[in-house]
Design goal:
Elements: H1 9-23, E1 32-45, E2 64-77, E3 82-88, H2 93-104, E4 115-119, H3 127-133, H4 136-145, E5 146-150, H5 161-173, H6 180-197, H7 207-213
Parallel strand pairs: 1-4, 4-5
Antiparallel strand pairs: 1-2, 2-3
């Protein structure tokens, strides 16, 4: 369900910026990458799962053991059907900066002139993270290649990475996962399968739709 605050001029400007980026045709020199993160609690069974008769669900004891949490970074290029998923211990500024660095270092992006990075407003999602993680020279070199496109506050649903995270959750990591090793293995198999199939995101909400939905600027359409 969408959570939309007052539709201010700032809200409209940021929303239309993101939607206009989505509307552009794919350009390998200026790829659009949507990025977000999700926390996953690791939970192990304390007793073996009991198999039952064919056609009936297995029995799982209600008791469990908490094994901490892990952060999952999801980067997706919606128009090409490519995604990269990384599991980290935390999601601090250094983790975000290093993940962006890993993404930019991928062979498919090395020769791009500009990377359009769509993000929500988490306090790690800005240039400060790069300067606090890398040398000034490297941070500036990276930022020369990145164009940030932040969704409006309370409108992270505009980030297509949320769509990909929802699919990841349903298809791959829903339910109890006991360890980081198992989590990484499951995600790697899922990622490989979706990339091989080039599963794209068919985004249909446009700037024109936004103006109708939120009842503004219709005279400019």
């Amino acid at each position: 369900m969408w959570c939309v605050p007052a539709v201010t001029d700032e809200f409209k400007e940021k929303m239309e910026n993101v939607l206009d980026i989505y509307a552009k045709p794919h350009d390998s020199q200026e790829p659009v990458i949507c990025m977000d993160e999700k926390s996953k609690q690791l939970i192990a069974d304390t007793k073996p799962i009991q198999n039952t008769q064919s056609g009936k669900p297995r029995r799982r004891d209600y008791e469990y053991q908490r094994n901490g949490t892990r952060n999952i970074f999801v980067s997706v290029e919606p128009k090409t059907g490519y995604r990269r998923v990384t599991v980290t211990d935390k999601r601090k500024k250094i983790d975000f900066a290093r993940e962006v660095d890993r993404v930019l270092s991928l062979k498919r992006y090395r020769h791009a002139t500009v990377i359009h990075l769509v993000l929500d407003n988490l306090n790690t999602h800005n240039a400060t993270s790069f300067f606090e993680t890398f040398s000034k020279v490297k941070a500036e070199r990276m930022l020369e290649k990145i164009r940030f496109h932040h969704t409006p506050k309370h409108a992270s649903w505009l980030n297509m990475a949320e769509v990909e995270i929802g699919i990841l959750d349903r298809q791959c990591i829903k339910g109890r996962i006991a360890s980081e090793e198992v989590l990484k293995r499951k995600i790697a198999l899922w990622q490989r399968s979706r990339n091989k199939s080039k599963m794209k995101i068919n985004w249909k909400f446009t700037t024109k739709d936004a103006r109708v939905k939120f009842k503004y600027g219709l005279e400019l359409s």
